[in-house]
């Protein structure tokens, strides 16, 4: 059935205006970006097919670049770009919200702060958090992106930011798209090398947290934990 044949109050756009976005399901929200359907499938059906291809998970949809979204029937370039932009805005909103509580007392705080930025990525990113004496995060910096080799971290770059921030501690954070948070040999080497570089300036490496899908590994705790 075409959307224009639906009851007016049940069409996604009209439903959002009358009842608010919270009243819409994920497929209905996606249908607003898709706009119109294709022969044999309205916009909501196209959105449902797109969600089904991602196992019904928005987190999986976030992993897909616009070009991959375009492979779905009824999702052209303009629609794929709109959907990718909407998902990225959601990610950035969560990242902003996480920074409102910048005090770090343990790896759980690090995960809360960084998961919105790292969840659903199809590539590795490595970040540094800079802390003052009260363990308040005064700065955050992406060190590498798109590489699976943590050893490419530039210790000099971190040290320059340490001096600028007058930081007293650093936390290294990166993701494992593979789904396993356990550190590899390159992670161990990079951690040790940065730790030695910071020690020369009397700055502590507070922790190195590896975030994977649904779990994380803390070098401070030396154990794998499930994230909420």
- The topology string of helices and strands comes to HHHHHHHEEHEHEEE
The main β sheet shows up as:
6 strands, mixed
Order of strands in the sheet with the most strands? 2-1-3-4-5-6
Fraction of residues in helix: 40-55%
Indicate the radius of gyration in whole angstroms. Answer: 21 Å
Count of runs of 4 or more consecutive helical residues:
9
Poorly predicted parts: none
How much is the average pLDDT? 84
Distance between the termini: 39 Å
What shape does the CA trace take? Answer: elongated
Looking at how many chains there are and whether they match, the oligomeric state comes to single chain
- Coarse structural class: alpha+beta
Percent of residues in beta strands: 15-25%
Count of β-strands: 6
Summarize the helices and strands and which ones pair or pack.
Layout (H helix, E strand, L loop, with lengths): L11 H8 L6 H9 L8 H11 L4 H5 L3 H4 L7 H23 L7 H12 L6 E7 L5 E9 L9 H11 L3 E7 L9 H15 L4 E9 L2 E4 L4 E4 L2
Parallel strand pairs: 3-4
Antiparallel strand pairs: 1-2, 1-3, 4-5, 5-6
Structure description:
The chain is α+β, with helices and mostly antiparallel strands. The protein contains 9 helices and 6 strands, in the order H-H-H-H-H-H-H-E-E-H-E-H-E-E-E. It has helices at 12-19, 26-34, 43-53, 58-62, 66-69, 77-99, 107-118, 155-165, 185-199, and strands spanning 125-131, 137-145, 169-175, 204-212, 215-218, 223-226. The protein has a 6-stranded mixed β-sheet with strand order 2-1-3-4-5-6, sandwiched between helices. Strand 1 and strand 2 (137-145) form a beta hairpin. Helix 2 (26-34) packs across helix 3 and helix 6 runs antiparallel to helix 7 (107-118). The longest helix is centred in the middle third of the chain and has 23 residues, at 77-99.
